[in-house]
Amino acid sequence: MAVYFLENLNAIDVLKTVGIGLILYPILTVIYNITLHPLSRFPGPLLWGCSRLRYMYSSWSGWLHSDVAALHEKYGNVVRVAPNELSFADPRVWEDIYSNRGSSPAFPKSPVWHGSTPGKPDSLANLISSKRHAAMRRKMEPGFTERAVGQQEEIVQGFVGLLMQKLKGKCEESDDGSAAVDVVKWFTFVTMDIITDLSFGESFHLLEKEELDDWVGVVVNSMRVFTIMATLRNYPWLNWLLQKLIPASARRKADWHWHTVMQKVDQRLAEDTRRPDFLSLWQRDDKGGDGLEKGHVYANAFIMTVAGSETSAGTLTGTLNKLLKHPEILERLTKEVRSRFAHETEITFAALKELPYLNAVMSEGLRVCSVVPGLTLPRITPPSGGIVCGYRVPGNIFVGVHVHSTMTGSRYFFESTEFRPERWLAEVNQDPSSPYFHDQRNGVQPFGIGPRSCIGKPLALAEMRLILARLVWTFDIGQAESEAGKVVWEDQRAFTVIDKKPFEVRLRPRVQ
Ligand code: HEM
């Protein structure tokens, strides 16, 4: 029967059959996704659950974080945001997805979201195998401990000192002794100089040149490309097609970037130095023995420049943005810092750790102005499934925390979206009459938790405290009158990290 059918099939019939198949397949898939799919019982709009197109549209437009926040407001702590993906907004999600708990390991990353770059070695951030990741992380950890950060303080202080000097220079150039400066630019200069110095043994000298170079452009754009490529990997054929369409000039630029990394790392390794940068502190073994292989050193030195500058610069910008909207908080912070330090040389990493209000401001800045606000920490459930926030989730499903909703949800915080550093002060914990007593502060994990949490957290906190404290110690800070002085943090798009608009503030050196 089948042979007879095939013998009598002509080209037109074949085309018709393929055409009908091409039309029917997506229709049947959509019907399956909203009726029989194991996630069809989870709450969420049909448009998001029937195919991934709505998610991709939102992600590519840069509004995924706020679109999904609106869905959580409507549907609660779990939302189906794509046929095979659930978003969670609940403090319990951290432990359930990202932590190793007894015999249940943290859910793994998936190659769909954290794929390797063809032909390039893996870095800590995109290594999928938990075992290989743990081995790599062990070799890199000596570069990121509190002790290492203590050793790196002199390098960081040097750059922060230069930042203050440059900003004072801007004020001196003007007639009235004050200057409106775009802090996004200046925070990028200083954090990028710090991280490139630690990664390559020499900074990119952005503070000296006062301009962002090609490299920074590539790093900033790479977040956009990363976001688009990650969503495309859900459709391998479309991904394949777009890979083929990448223009030769873009490929040349990527090659140039990679060769620059290799060249800079090689140059630094050729020097006989004991400076406490990452390359000194990571365990290396050029022969492929019990240390990081050369390829992994290159890949990790590069990933540091992506992970270690945009994030800190964004958090500082967001925190300053909120401080300027709340002059009384800025005043209290300024008072704390100025009354504690008589001279700027006293402003050290160790001393800043002890300032309660500064640390409360930093914690609140990290909570309200998350630089990775949306679904940015995706994981996949093991084949046998798992329990997340009390829900039984089937196997091989993408799950993730919606960072913004978990850290600012009205169910978990008093005045949940307001910038209120008081909620972090130690006395709140002991005072049941405080409106913030019941805040679920354990849900605020801006650096993630578990085996894949942020390795750079001690450095990030130390450098951000130092930059903010030195700023309020040195300058009276006020709102700039320009349009760029009126940026509303929440009105910004995000491509994995917040896509920062220029933000100007007015600085005037304080009169002592
Ligand atoms: C405010 C600053 C920062 C924030 C909010 C932040 C946030 C995060 C988060 C949430 C993760 C976990 C990602 C995931 O689970 O998928 C992460 C991972 C990572 N961060 Fe950070 N980060 C910051 C600064 C830094 C700095 C300064 C460095 C480098 C010195 C750094 C290097 C990394 C690396 C390498 C990873 C991957 C770790 C792994 O997979 O083992 N970050 N970061």
From TrEMBL:
UniProt binding sites for heme: 454
The keyword Cytoplasm is assigned to this record: no
SUPFAM superfamilies xrefs: Cytochrome P450
Coiled-coil region(s): none
Gene3D superfamilies xrefs: Cytochrome P450
Keyword Iron: yes
A molecular-function term among this protein's GO annotations: iron ion binding
Cofactor names: heme
Domain of life where this protein originates: Eukaryota
Protein keywords: Heme, Iron, Metal-binding, Monooxygenase, Oxidoreductase
Family the entry assigns: Belongs to the cytochrome P450 family.
Listed name of the protein: Cytochrome P450
Natural source organism: Westerdykella ornata
